[in-house]
Design brief:
The protein is α/β, with parallel strands linked by helices and about 475 residues long. It is about 40% helix and about 15% strand. It contains 14 helices and 18 strands. A ten-stranded mixed sheet has the order 9-18-17-16-15-14-13-10-11-12, sandwiched between helices. Helix 2 packs across helix 4. The mean pLDDT is about 95. Keywords: ATP-binding, Isomerase, Lyase, Metal-binding, Multifunctional enzyme, NAD, NADP, Nucleotide-binding, Potassium. Belongs to the NnrE/AIBP family. In the C-terminal section; belongs to the NnrD/CARKD family. This is Bifunctional NAD(P)H-hydrate repair enzyme. InterPro entries: Carbohydrate_kinase_pred_CS (IPR017953), CARKD (IPR000631), Nnr (IPR030677), Ribokinase-like (IPR029056), YjeF_N_dom (IPR004443), YjeF_N_dom_sf (IPR036652).
Length: about 475
């Protein structure tokens, strides 16, 4: 079993294409199903302790995987039962049922077991479960001490993470071959529990991956404050938002942080304050990342500040109010390195209402704006022009606090100022932000979050060295 970090993520069509390519190269549907069933059986055997197992099977290939998993568990000496919603359809699923060879209980009559394995429906499902199926599955999951979904919890849409009906919560999901968007997109991701990938030995390719831990290093011995990265932030009407972003940038590794247009006595002494009205600090070639938007406001003065930022040739991070004052066309025409960090409301203000999944919307937006888009929320999608994308797993729900987005902007800016690929910088900032929240636990505020970036950064550096 493989954790999700950094693994490829495939939608239903891409997964089918990979399977078809394997079949064209000499595999068969039956051999792929046998491989999947064995992998599921072995994984359940490791997870289930000494407890009895109930495998519930659907009529399609996901059900076929379940029959073969049950046969594998029986061969390993397990006490295992099988229940089915309907007779198998298709030659491979029928052969899998015959390989099981044991009794098959009607789903509606099946009694719960300590370990429940849901192999009813998997990738490609587009309709809700029948009412009797959904009720039986919910009853069996509720009666299990450990509920395991095969590939996906039955009743979720693989590509956009939508719930097609009432879907119970599982403890573990065993993704077959590759992770699917629903393993990381809400609300489905919250139903999956811990997700582990079971490799099936087929070739996979694609531009979307689960967010990996960043590979970060301590500054070289000959570093100085500007070589570590200089971040400049333009203050808006709500000065505290800019200060939060500045604190975050300092704690996330920037060597020099300047707040432009601010006089905030309580800010750290290490924060450089400069006027933006009396001179032009944006021409400073040492600026590695320029941030505008946190607490900016949406009046004419805010528009003027945004135009000055857009006229600069610095790598630019746009957040908050500034996302309401610009268009994708203006951003694409500006060119250069741009990172956008919208939440859902800001995303729709900038790009309009979108169709399809959050992943598809972010990728389309990145192409339209010519920018890296960090589409924030309970799930976060990071997309770059050209199709590369990263999906971040579930983060702390305590991040739903005022100012946490400002902290994220500062964290990303610090990594952006250090140089390198802007998608990687955005990914590192998102990862550090979530890691800082995990360290704090419950009840934190954004000020705490900014401070917690430093130990999160130190831990990431230690992991990179290991």
């Amino acid at each position: 079993m493989t954790p999700l970090d950094g693994t490829i993520v495939l939608d239903a069509a891409a997964m089918r294409a990979a399977e078809q390519a394997a079949i064209a190269a000499g595999e068969s549907v039956e051999s792929l199903m046998q491989r999947a069933g064995r992998a599921v059986g072995d994984a359940v055997h490791r997870l289930a302790g000494a407890h009895a197992v109930l495998v519930v099977c659907g009529p399609g290939n996901n059900g076929g995987d379940g029959y073969l998993a049950a046969a594998r568990l029986r061969a390993l000496g397990r006490t295992v039962r099988v229940a089915a919603a309907a007779a198998p359809r298709g030659a491979a699923a029928i052969a899998a049922r015959e390989a099981w060879g044991g009794a098959v209980e009607p789903l509606a009559a099946a009694k719960p077991a300590p370990v429940l394995v849901d192999s009813l429906y998997g990738t490609g499902l587009r309709r809700p479960l029948a009412a009797d199926e959904a009720a039986s599955l919910a009853r069996l999951v509720a009666g299990a001490a450990l509920a395991i979904a095969v590939d996906l919890p039955s009743g979720v849409a693989s590509d956009d993470g939508a719930l097609l009906g009432q879907v119970p919560r599982y403890h573990v999901t065993l993704a077959l071959g590759a992770a699917k968007p629903a393993h990381l997109l809400q609300p489905a991701a919250a139903r999956c529990g811990g997700v582990r990938v079971l490799p099936l030995g087929i070739a996979l390719s694609g531009d979307t991956r689960a967010l990996p831990p960043p590979r970060l290093a301590a500054p070289p011995v000959d570093s100085h404050k500007f070589s570590r990265g200089m971040v400049a932030l333009i203050k808006g009407r709500m000065a505290g938002a800019g200060e939060l972003a500045a604190r975050a940038a300092m704690r996330a590794g920037a060597g020099y942080v300047s707040l432009l247009g601010a006089t905030i006595p309580q800010a750290p002494h290490a924060l450089v304050r400069r006027s933006i009205e009396r001179d032009d600090p944006l021409v400073d070639a040492r600026i590695g990342a320029l941030v505008i938007g946190p607490g900016l406001g949406r009046d004419d003065h805010a528009r003027d500040l945004l135009e000055r930022a857009l006229a600069s040739d610095r790598a630019l991070l746009i957040d908050g109010d500034a996302l309401h004052l610009v268009t994708p066309e203006r951003l694409r025409a500006r060119g250069g390195t741009i990172v956008l960090t919208p939440h859902a409301g800001e995303f729709h203000a900038l790009f309009g209402e979108t169709q399809g999944s959050k992943l598809a919307a972010a990728c389309t937006a990145a192409e339209r704006a010519g920018a890296v888009v960090v589409y924030k929320g309970p799930d976060t999608v990071i997309a770059a022009p050209g199709g590369r994308a990263l999906l971040a797993g579930e983060a702390s729900s305590w991040l739903s606090t005022a100012g946490s987005g400002d902290v994220l902007a500062g964290a990303i800016a610090a990594r952006l100022a250090a140089g390198g690929d802007p998608l990687d910088a955005a990914a590192a900032g998102v990862w550090l932000h979530a890691a800082a929240a995990r360290r704090l636990g419950a009840g934190f505020i954004a000020d705490d979050l900014a401070e917690a970036l430093a130990p999160a950064l130190a831990a990431a550096i230690r992991e990179t060295r290991a």
